[in-house]
């Protein structure tokens, strides 16, 4: 791909982007993710499950707390791109969680950095505490079907077929921003879908 010349007046990059954490919305199967950008201020995104409120709250307040942390880090990529800060503060994560976060904001945004005429490999300083790095205890998988992401493309069908070939049951899950996409996916999916809805700031 040919490298294009940078535009003459690139907007200044933000100095700091912080992933502040998350909280659950009372009386709702929804989680709010919080961020702060030194250039644009605060952002909050809401993620809603189509699941019983008690199931969502019990899981995220218990064994799924680390999943909530990682989800918040992943969702933050959408807001990070507004200012492309040179320094990112992640919440306290395990060593593996830190590695995942760093990869999302560097390798995962490689095309973004190149197209935005920013240095790549990314020149980002990462801050944030690393939690206890001792090996996690083995956790017996929960009973029930395997969860497979479904976006409507061929990769979704291939993933479903691979899991089913292992004689495992499958539940399909999609992340959507609006009802039109939800309806289109449900109409074309080979089985009922579980949905998570993102409500952008």
Task: Furnish the topology, listing elements before pairings.
Elements: E1 17-24, E2 30-37, E3 41-49, H1 53-61, H2 65-75, H3 77-80, E4 87-89, H4 95-105, H5 110-115, E5 125-127, E6 146-149, H6 154-165, E7 170-176, H7 179-188, E8 193-199
Parallel strand pairs: 1-4, 4-5, 6-7, 7-8
Antiparallel strand pairs: 1-2, 2-3, 3-8
Give an overview in words.
The protein is of the alpha/beta class. 31% of the residues lie in helices and 24% in strands. It has helices at residues 53-61, 65-75, 77-80, 95-105, 110-115, 154-165, 179-188, and strands at residues 17-24, 30-37, 41-49, 87-89, 125-127, 146-149, 170-176, 193-199. An 8-stranded mixed sheet has the order 5-4-1-2-3-8-7-6, with helices on both faces. α7 (179-188) links the parallel β7 (170-176) and β8 (193-199). The radius of gyration is 19 Å and the shape is globular. The chain starts with 16 loop residues before the first strand and ends with a strand. The model has no long low-confidence stretch (mean pLDDT 89).
């Amino acid at each position: 791909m040919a490298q294009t010349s940078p535009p003459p007046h690139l907007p200044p990059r933000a100095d700091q982007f912080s992933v502040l954490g998350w909280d659950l919305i009372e009386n709702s199967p929804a989680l709010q993710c919080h961020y702060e950008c030194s250039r644009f201020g605060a952002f909050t995104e809401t993620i809603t499950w189509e699941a019983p409120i008690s199931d969502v709250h019990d899981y995220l307040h218990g064994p799924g707390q680390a999943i909530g942390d990682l989800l918040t880090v992943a969702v933050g990529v959408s807001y990070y791109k507004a200012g492309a800060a040179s320094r990112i503060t992640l919440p306290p994560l395990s060593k593996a969680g830190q590695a995942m976060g760093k990869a999302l904001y560097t390798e995962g945004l490689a095309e973004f950095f190149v197209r935005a005429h920013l240095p790549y490999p990314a020149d980002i300083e990462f801050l944030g505490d690393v939690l206890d790095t001792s090996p996690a205890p083995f956790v017996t998988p929960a009973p029930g079907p395997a969860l497979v992401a479904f976006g409507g493309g061929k990769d979704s069908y291939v993933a479903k077929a691979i899991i089913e070939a292992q004689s495992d049951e499958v539940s399909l899950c999609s992340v959507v921003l609006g009802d039109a996409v939800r309806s289109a996916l449900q109409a074309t999916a080979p089985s009922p879908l579980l949905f998570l809805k993102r409500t952008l700031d």
